[in-house]
């Protein structure tokens, strides 16, 4: 096969060069748009961020495009990394807080209202041992501890994570699943936190959480001191591969310190109640 004439080769080369330059210009425009993003600006919303990220993809790309799939897989990794950073920062603050005294400042006697006074001479600082501070925190609910007490300073944060304050975990402590985003894996990760090491009373959040034999055994390992397990509607329905009697029996068999199970009476049978009672009586 004869080679194309020199003029034809030159035209084809020039055309390819034009295409390459056009792709390069589009790529540079996309990089410029990404570089110009400033997330600190209030006007930079999700739409602007999405538009900038889409410039990384070909104009005709859909969700099935390999580059689009790579981009989509990056978002969970970003969220995971941000969560990991949050955990590390929280642990660092808590560790630093354990080395700081729990201090309360009061107006110094005879100094209140005097003119010319300033600085520390106007205040009296009292340092309270953590053993004396924990009974004060016990007057608060779990929600109040998290929302208010833990945000005062690092010393308060460290004290608020003491396991003695978290022997009960239920909806009154802030454990809910109203948005149905909490799954069993997330719940188990929550229970792995050191602050729940002495958990004695636990109420399962109701929405979208179902027990299984495997999950029950894992919860038993995470909560070895549990004395009361409130199951509610969390067990699987009667149409599942096991009945609710079996689920309660599995709970009774795996939690060694359990002395009470709260559930709805219409979800189990008399036979199940008798079986669970015999198991717990033998412990």
From the structure above, extract its key features.
flat, 283 residues, 6 strands, 48% helix, alpha/beta, 10 helices
In short:
This protein has 283 residues and is α/β, with parallel strands linked by helices.
Task: Please render the helix and strand layout as text.
Layout lengths: L5 H31 L9 H9 L11 H33 L3 E6 L15 E6 L1 H8 L4 H6 L6 H7 L7 E2 L14 H8 L9 E3 L9 H10 L5 E5 L11 H11 L5 E4 L6 H12 L2
Parallel strand pairs: 3-4, 4-5, 5-6
Antiparallel strand pairs: 1-2
Helix pairs in contact: 1-2, 3-6, 8-9, 9-10
Description of the molecule:
This protein has helices at residues 6-36, 46-54, 66-98, 130-137, 142-147, 154-160, 184-191, 213-222, 244-254, 270-281; strands at residues 102-107, 123-128, 168-169, 201-203, 228-232, 260-263. It is an alpha/beta fold and 283 residues long. Among the domains are: 92-109 and 122-164, no CATH class; 166-283, no CATH class. The strands form two sheets. It has a four-stranded parallel beta sheet with strand order 3-4-5-6, with no helix packed on it. It has a two-stranded antiparallel ribbon with strand order 1-2. Strand 5 (228-232), helix 9 and strand 6 (260-263) form a beta-alpha-beta unit. The chain is flat, with a radius of gyration of 30 Å. The N and C termini lie far apart (91 Å).
